[in-house]
Amino acid sequence: MTSTATAIHCPDCQVEPGTPHELGCDVACCPVCGIQQLQCREHEFAEVFSIWTGRWPGEVECEREGWWCIWRPGEGGWVRCDPDHPEARHDLNRLLIAAGNRELVWSREHQQWVRL
User: Fold this and answer.
1) Whole-structure pTM value
2) How many whole angstroms separate alpha carbon 7 and alpha carbon 82?
3) CB 3.0-4.6 Å disulfide test: which of 15, 21, 68, 72 passes with 88?
4) 104 with 97: CB under 8 angstroms?
């Protein structure tokens, strides 16, 4: 299992854990709806910023749901796997699909995707 759990600073805006992302950060999620902040036009003038936790957005949710994958180009790309596979990565694509299908909704309070 691979994780960025040991990340100190945001890989884009370089803020420390517990600190709001800087404006224009490529990693930041919209704190209102959960999509990538740079992609969100509906809330682009919201005066709140997501907080860098030290973890890549979506990792906690993938761990909670048990969603892992490995890269297998000969099998069409990312393939689901068990968390103990030595090449396992968080299945962030599955997370976004689940959010798009409304299996998960964005919790403003927890700043995470959660089950209904």
Assistant:
1) 0.87
2) 23
3) 68
4) no
The answer to whether the CB of 26 falls within 8 A of the CB of 55 is no
Model confidence pLDDT, tens digit, residues 59-106: 999 999 999 999 999 999 999 999 999 999 999 999 999 999 999 999
**Neighbouring residues of 105: CB distance < 8 A, sequence distance ≥ 6:** 99, 113, 114, 116
SS3 labels along the chain: CCCCCCCCCCCCCCCCCCEECCCCCCCCECCCCCCEHHHCCCCCCCCCCCEECCCCCCHHHHHHHCCEEEEEHHHCEEEECCCCCCCCEECHHHHHHHHHCCCEEEECCCCEEEEC
User: What is the C-alpha separation between 27 and 15, in angstroms, rounded?
Assistant: 11
